[in-house]
Each structure stands twice: as C-alpha cells, then as structure tokens.
Amino acid sequence: MLRASTPSAHPPRILMLYGSLRERAFSRLLTEEAARLLRAMGAEVRIFNPSGLPLPDDAPDTHPKVQELRELTLWCEGMVWCSPERHGAMTGIMKAQIDWIPLNTGAVRPTQGKTLAVMQVCGGSQSFNAVNQMRVLGRWMRMLTIPNQSSVAKAFMEFDEHNRMKPSSYLDRVVDVMEELVKFTLLTRDMAPYLVDRYSERKESAEELMRRVNQRAL
Q1: Vertex 105 angle, CA 101 and 107, to 5°
Q2: What is the pLDDT of residue 107?
C-alpha cells in the first residue's frame, strides 16, 4: 500500500495562495519567487489571485472566484500558503481563502492528504505567528504540512526594484522549503488516501452500510 503500482509521471501540481491585495504585496512577491523555484524544480504551478473573492458566507459557493479556487484545490497535489503578519496573525484575506475551501465535497475531501508549505512576511522583526496559525489550519484540513517553513523579516528590504528577492539567508530558506515541498509531494501523492485513512471513519462507513442493508431487508 505504500508503493504505487503505477507511479504518477506528471509534474507535481502546486497551488499557491497569498494574503494581501496591495499593489506591491510582499506576500505575493515571495509567492512569485517561490513559484519560479518550483517551476525550475519541475513542478506545475498555479497562483490564485484573491482579488474579487467574497467574504465567506457573503456570497453563494457558485460565485466565479469561489469556483475557481475550489477547482484549483481539486487540481493540485500540494499547496503553498503565504501570508503577511497583521496584528500578530495571518490576514483576513488569507483566512477567507482557506475558509472557502470545503472540508468535504460529497465523498471528496479536497485537501486531505495533500502536502502544504507555509510562509510569511513581516514588516518588522521576524515572527512565526502566521505560519504557526496556518500549520494549525493545515492539520485541521488533514494536509501533510512539511517540517520546514519560511518567515521573512523586514520584507520591504528583501526585494529589489524588479521585485526579485535579493540573495540572502531568507532566500536560501525559501529554496529549502520549496525543495522539501517537491520531495514530500513526490513521495506521498500516489498513496495520500492511504496515509490519511482512518479506522474510525472506516468503522462508521461499515456501520452505515450495515444499517442500509438491514433497512432493505426489512
């Protein structure tokens, strides 16, 4: 069960979310820098633009931006979440995107077993509040969050006039994180359903099946 009989041959599919709508949003710039790295490592990458996404419960889930986000979530095998830290937490824009991703869509769990890397940008000294929060959410959504993470302090000093990240230990860490994400995605994508399969859910399904069988018999 831990060895795929026919391993997937396509590039790892990575969806990237960022948490700011500013014209020069450093979470977006960091996401774009990470996307270049992922593509250089052979991954297929899509970046979701949160502009126009309504607040959760303020629009039906048929809204075009909600549908776009949910389709990308089904498409991907791994994700990168990158948020600024605002008031000691991830931004509302970041949380809104995550909140629009359902835990269940019929029999499908859109995020279950998919890999996740978390990153944040800070306006001042380095902090880890946002990445820690996103780790909690990743666990709640039954994702395989990789051990490494990135937190870029004083992000306004880390990008040049062309919006490229300057060489630094922060950039080295981003390379580390993206490399680790690709490795974990390749290792787990073919057996993700088995890795997150739960005894309690199998038991519940079996009991429900027996109830239906008994009802038909009556």
Answers
A1: 140
A2: 63
Residue type, 2: L
Mean pLDDT for all residues in the chain: 94
* Residues 146-181 pLDDT 10s: 999 999 999 999 999 999 999 999 999 999 999 999
Length of the chain: 218
CA 112 to chain centre: 11
Q: Let me know if 215 is exposed, middle or buried by CB neighbors in 10 A (0-12, 13-18, 19+).
A: exposed
pLDDT per position as a tens digit, 85-109: 999 999 999 999 999 998 877 667 8
Q: Kindly list the distances between the CA atom of residue 25 and the CA atoms of 47, 83, 119, 217, in Å, as whole numbers in the listed order.
A: 14, 10, 14, 62
- In 3D space, the residue among 92, 75, 78 whose CA is nearest the CA of residue 181 turns out to be 78
CA neighbor of 134 nearest in space, from 146, 124, 122: 146
Percent of the chain that is helix, strand, coil (3-state, to 5): 45, 15, 40
**Four-point Cα dihedral 22, 26, 27, 33, nearest 10:** 130
Positions of E strands within the chain: 13-18, 44-48, 78-86, 89-90, 115-121, 144-145, 150-152
- What percent of the chain lies above the pLDDT cut of 70? 99
